[in-house]
């Protein structure tokens, strides 16, 4: 894999591969969007986020089509947004319905209003071809809203490309090294056999580890730090937007008041802000001891510490990659197989989008700017 | 109008259009230039400004032709400037008259000394083809020096291209929206008919509003906030460097001690620092109540507040335009007619300069560096 | 000499000329390298520096060949360095000898371990073609380790290209101007005849000044400020990495306890960090009054002050050169002859390297990324 060597044929995605647009990404946590206008950059585009009076999330292009004023500096008028420069008023579909200086609304003036969908704590957005925005493609994350689960969560802004972050999650051989201090992964776990399955655009990891002490991140919230358990783990690169990992832990000789089986799900959500930065949200969910505030605190602290180690590492890698301008080969090894599978999927998706987009772009490039006839002002 | 799409034929100037060089710009306020060497960047070039012992302003290229040392880090020697590196001494015409390490002055060593002209509080500069630097082309701004007028003024450094600033001034439909809090423009004024005249490279706006209450910016200094007046307004895009607006206000039934007619002139001076930043000076002048310190204070505060709103808006637009890299069309409407007329003038001027400059640039590119024979040191 | 005009044939090196790689540069002072991992950027490459348990300096490429993690964020394991991401373990030759996730070390995984050589207080590095890294090419600087000499030293990080710094040292006509306050160079010295010899890739200046008061930088440490001396000076552009100047001062009528002859050597070491920045170390050495702490203090202060003037000047020039984007000719004069000779040498060396490197680069560009077979993890 080289950087700064565009002529060379790439075999897998890297930090230079164009972002995938035909994909549902998380734009924000549900709680981040309200009746205030909020700006965020997603996939290199600045967007405006707010809720209608009925509470529905709206995400639109954040530049007025008239003179590029950022609509997030304007104001809400009911469910509509009003540009702060000349007062152009757009409805939730992005169509201009009023302009104070014109006798009739210029209804051909439109901005993109992106398909959105709220699912529990997540607001998803589709910024690619609207015709392909099928809500059925939104990944299912029921554990995040199920009252039978308890979740702690956090977020990071990471100055790195999202491909390296996904690879980090598909690669468990870094646990004992990068996370030596935080103790993610036990020595036994690192040596357990891992199955890798590529199913369509999904990469699935499976690993089991029998009769072994659980790591604290499971043992503490289960209150089973004193004995061996059986552990079955599945990890999924589910989409460019999402990686999640399920763990099922079997308590072989449950005592009074204990469960026979415990489940944990860790959800990592990446939304590229730009080619070189990410909005990163993580969720640590469990189906046991839901009211245990000590467990909440422990999981929040230990997760934050461990993910910060990943974030630091990926920031450093991006800095290193940007510091040197000469092409540089990456060496890959057997344990990189899941990451390579994911990177080949991303490269294929990017190439498919590039081929589909090429003619459309040319068409838009020859469109003349529209000028409406003067109004009798 | 697109950005990042240079191949596409443009119909009017935008933030990517090359700056106009054959034009008188304001380099500085008269009071900014003295016997200290002062550096400023104008039209992308670093210049050196000072006054001779007789008080004449001198503006020269701020790089020594020998090893590029910024002359502003040197010192004055009478009317001449001395480079701080090797002591090359340049007269006010930019010709080297002495170099300590050479027996004879290298009189072929020259730097550009720009045509300048001081007019009241303004020092104008011509950075284009010197052969075209006709002082008769300097716009007249007599109200800035006439003792019958009183002026308050201020300045901004704006991180935006100057085209958008000029368009902002030619567009009065943003008054009730962007300036909603500061109350520039009354509702009646916004609805009054506007005439637009394009006269050569000048765009002239005319508007009258009869029997209507004056906005505070006129009413307070006239002390006529309690009644209706007739108001006649002219606005001029006078050159790439200057926009000014005259208001004549008729006091229909003057009481004792009041004038029958009041005049106001607001002057906006833009000098591109770079393609994406401006030196902006403004002046608010009146012909009434010249000694009214309260009026001065009111005008200073209200003007500063209102122009800050414009500056903020244009900064936000520039940020938005720079954030996204894809081409983007602007939509234009009837009220944009004056701005579009101005932008077509600027595009034509830029194209004319590009055609005139092309051969000259090629010639200079083949000139060999001059090397004088060694002196007996 | 033009900038931003790559098509024009250059006659001498300037700030745009590619850096010379086949050259011994100083990577660090000996005292800067120890058993901690230290990162530094040299010639545009990030390197890792440490010492083995035996105290030998090691300098290696600071990016793991696996996933570009900066090895300086890892740790030492005896004499080896361990990547902080997946634990790849490299010996001092840069060869991977262990990877925790693989059954056998991937011995084809290698990083560059640069030829280094410690000479007194200096650790030299060769970052060009390793086959040409002849230690005999390391410039001799015996005065820096000889117990008969006393040295004070300092360092700067300069935001300028190294060519202009070398030219500054070869040009003594700037002494009375740029260093007017610090009094480097006496008026008599400036007028003394200078011989310039170009010997291979070395530029040698020679100047003598008889029966003249010494400048304080020599007079104070000699304690001979009260009389005239004879002074013989040699300056050497010794390589892209090094400039040094020897002064021999003859005390014509030595009094009791005085020497007949005094020697001073000033050493300037430049290592390009990037195309536009330098690590700069200087050393002021004398063979007299070795225990004179007042002389040490005086030399440290006066040298720091004077070199800061050069550093400021070159920073300003680089800023000026970067501010304007149009091509700009440099004028050169007789006294610039040594600098021009040096700049022609640098241009020739750069051109030779470019021609030699061209085919090698193409080969590496077609190499496929190596993927080792999966290990039974």
Automatic annotation (TrEMBL), chains A, B, C:
Top-level division of the source organism's lineage: Bacteria
Molecular function per GO: 2 iron, 2 sulfur cluster binding; metal ion binding; methyltransferase activity; monooxygenase activity
One of the GO BP terms on file: methylation
Keywords assigned by UniProt, alphabetized: 2Fe-2S, Iron, Iron-sulfur, Metal-binding, Methyltransferase, Monooxygenase, Oxidoreductase, Transferase
Tagged with keyword Membrane: no
Rieske domain sequence ranges: 24-125
Full protein name: Vanillate O-demethylase monooxygenase subunit
Organism name: Noviherbaspirillum humi
């Amino acid at each position: 894999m080289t950087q700064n060597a565009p002529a060379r044929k790439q075999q897998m995605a890297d930090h230079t591969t164009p972002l995938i647009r035909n994909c549902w990404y998380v734009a924000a946590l549900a709680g981040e969007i309200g009746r205030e206008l909020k700006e965020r950059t997603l996939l290199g585009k600045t967007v405006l986020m707010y809720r209608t009076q009925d509470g529905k999330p709206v995400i639109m292009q954040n530049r007025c089509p008239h003179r590029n004023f950022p609509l997030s500096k304007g104001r809400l008028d009911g469910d509509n947004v009003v540009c702060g420069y000349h007062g152009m008023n757009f409805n939730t579909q992005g169509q201009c319905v009023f302009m104070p200086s014109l006798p009739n609304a210029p209804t051909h003036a439109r901005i993109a209003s992106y398909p959105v969908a709220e699912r529990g704590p997540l607001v998803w957005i589709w910024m690619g071809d609207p015709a392909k925005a099928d809500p059925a493609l939104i990944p299912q994350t029921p554990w995040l809203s199920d009252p039978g689960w308890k979740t702690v969560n956090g977020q990071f802004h990471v100055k790195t490309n999202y491909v390296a972050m996904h690879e980090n999650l598909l690669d468990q051989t870094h646990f004992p090294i990068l996370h030596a201090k935080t103790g993610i992964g036990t020595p036994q776990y690192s040596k357990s056999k891992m199955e890798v399955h590529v199913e369509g655009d999904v990469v699935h990891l499976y690993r089991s580890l029998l009769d072994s002490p659980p790591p604290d991140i499971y043992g503490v919230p289960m209150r089973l730090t004193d004995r061996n358990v059986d552990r079955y783990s599945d990890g999924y690169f589910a989409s460019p937007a999402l990686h999640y990992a399920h763990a099922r832990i079997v308590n072989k000789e449950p005592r009074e008041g204990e469960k026979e089986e415990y489940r944990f799900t860790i959800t990592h959500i990446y939304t590229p802000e730009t080619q070189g930065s990410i909005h990163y949200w993580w969720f640590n969910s469990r189906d046991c001891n839901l009211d245990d505030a000590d467990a909440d605190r422990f999981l929040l602290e230990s997760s934050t510490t461990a993910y910060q180690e990943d974030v630091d590492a990926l920031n450093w890698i991006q800095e290193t990659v940007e510091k040197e301008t000469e092409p540089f080969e990456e060496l890959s090894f057997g344990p990189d197989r899941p990451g390579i599978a994911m990177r080949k999927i991303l490269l294929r998706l990017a190439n498919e989008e590039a081929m589909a987009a090429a003619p459309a772009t040319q068409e838009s490039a020859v469109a003349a700017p529209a000028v409406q006839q003067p109004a009798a002002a």
